[in-house]
Amino acid sequence: MFEVDLLIVGAGPAGLCAALEAGQQGLTVLLVDENAKPGGQLFKQIHKFFGSEMHKAGTRGFRIGEDLVREIAACPNITLWLDSVVFSAIDQNHFEVVHNCSVQVIKTKKVIVATGAIEKGLVFPGWTLPGVMGAGALQTMINVNRVRPGNKLLMVGSGNVGLIVSYQFLQAGGESVILVEAANRIGGYGVHASKIRRYGTNIITGCSVESVSGNGKVESAILAKVDDKFQTIKGTQWEEKVDIVAIAVGLYPLMELLRQLGCKFTMCPALGGWVPVHDERMETSINGIFIAGDVSGAEEASTAMEEGRLAAWSATYDLAKCTKNKYESVRIDITKRLEALRSGPYGIARKNAKDSIYAIAKKF
Amino acid sequence: MEENLKTCGVISPEEFINCKGWPSDERFLKGPVAILECIEEIPCNPCECSCPKGAIYVGHPITNLPTLDESKCIGCKSCIASCPGLAIFVEDHTFSDKEALVSFPFEFIPFPKKGEKVSAVNRKSEVVCTAVVHDIYCAKSNDSTMIVTLRIDKQYVHQVRSCKMLEA
């Protein structure tokens, strides 16, 4: 049996930052990730991040990942298990992990689940044809695997993921991008849309994909205008020749481990769907089980990093490894930075959603 | 349907009125100067930290739109690569009687070469004119954001915001 103070499931930005904070406070940490490399989504984020200097604004995502991984390696209290899956929660202190081809049982005092989020799908005739994929999958292929799976992209969805991946597809040598958005406004940042408009991308609002067809692979798509209830407007269909269709319609939390534990959830559309109930300390409805990052609601890497730090400090305080004053001062600082990231017209919906989840948590 | 930043990705003339990063006509006549085409309140301030002359102010909260102090700005282009939204440009109306220089961020390979003729495009990717690449540079701190400066006919200076991607 492998015993630690803190088990962290997921070594993306939230898990990495959590491990560093806890490790630096003297906790023994086991950080587990199912992938061959740590860093989560950071390594495919080749664009520069927004935010403040504290959030490493102006730095490309993958460099933030590289820095974090280096710091983890330098911390002796942190054990990192890669290619390892935490597949079972026996109870809140015992977990089973497949590691090095065998099942290991972990005994831990506290847990931070930082398993991130997964892309939503969109169902339409032809959606199973090779060439239809999530926008995140396309991003991994071009930025990490250096494979461009086609030349003429149809991007469905104009949130930041759709806008950024369209730009990166052009950077990868893609020929053209048509971006459709069912709503009548672009969902993501105006500046991301401006970038791709400079290079010939056609952004069509009030429009969706009706069907995709081809001989064993994507060859064309039928697009149609939609009304404000997202219903197809008859007679507005037209065909575009495309060879990739990327779906960027949102993310939702990956919560299987939390379900096994019996954590409570709440439906929160602004954060992706079912979200685990948690308080401002990042603790779930089960004592000692914390969450951080996109699993606590689909947001962004910068909020993930801050939530990871916050969850780690909450676990550290609960293990009596820091004073109340220290914990309170750190908690207040991190909370201020999270509020800054959730401010402005793009942040307010997420801020309100988080506040409503914290309010629900008070009842448990 | 109204064409503005959120409906089609291109800032409309009306939206530019609220933009605090646009220098006055008088300032353009004095030499190179930065233009911050940033009109949305996003938590973001690397432009402020990047200016060696303190000419860009965001302050707190960091959702504030950046304001350009045109008297402090020397048009050094340090801010161009710092903007994650690629929304900063530098124009120099004093290059010659007929020509101006416009500098913008460029993140595609192949990079244009100095002296090369390229197609200068506007915010909608429409080719505005042919231009000569006056200068290119990429400081290490720019982290792969190339700064391209084009020499163009002065009448197009407020329109040109990039060049067409080059053939590999």
Description:
The complex is a heterodimer of chains A (364) and B (168). Chain A is of the alpha/beta class. Chain A has two domains: 2-118 and 251-361, FAD/NAD(P)-binding domain; 121-247, FAD/NAD(P)-binding domain. Chain A is built from nine helices and 19 strands. In chain A, the strands form five sheets. In chain A, strands 1, 2, 3, 4, 5, 6 and 19 form a seven-stranded mixed sheet that branches. Chain A starts with a strand and ends with a helix. The model of chain A has no long low-confidence stretch (mean pLDDT 96). Chain B is mainly beta and 168 residues long. Chain B folds into two domains: 1-93, Alpha-Beta Plaits (2-Layer Sandwich), CATH 3.30.70; 95-168. Chain B has four helices and nine strands, in the order αααβαββββββββ. Chain B has a seven-stranded antiparallel sheet, with no helix packed on it. A two-stranded antiparallel ribbon of chain B has the order 2-3. The termini of chain B are far apart. The mean pLDDT of chain B is 95. Chain A binds chain B through residues 47-53, 57-60, 63, 170-171, 173, 184-186, 189-201, 203, 205-206, 340-341, 343-347, and chain B through 1, 5-11, 37-46, 49-50, 61-63, 82-87, 107-108, 121, 123-125, 143-145, 161-162, 164-165, 168.
Q: What is this structure's SSE topology?
A:
The complex is a heterodimer of chains A (364) and B (168).
Chain A lengths: L1 E8 L3 H12 L4 E4 L28 H13 L4 E4 L3 E7 L2 E6 L2 E12 L3 E3 L12 E3 H9 L8 E5 L3 H12 L4 E6 L8 H8 L4 E4 L1 E7 L6 E6 L12 E4 L2 E4 L3 E3 L2 H6 L3 E4 L4 E4 L12 E3 L9 H18 L5 H18 L2 H18 L3
Parallel strand pairs in A: 1-2, 1-6, 2-3, 6-19, 8-15, 9-10, 9-15, 10-11
Antiparallel strand pairs in A: 4-5, 5-6, 7-16, 12-13, 13-14, 17-18
Helix pairs in contact in A: 1-2, 1-7, 3-4, 4-5, 7-8
Chain B lengths: L4 H4 L4 H4 L8 H4 L4 E4 L9 H5 L5 E2 L9 E2 L19 E5 L6 E8 L10 E5 L5 E11 L8 E8 L8 E2 L5
Antiparallel strand pairs in B: 1-4, 2-3, 4-5, 5-8, 6-7, 6-9, 7-8
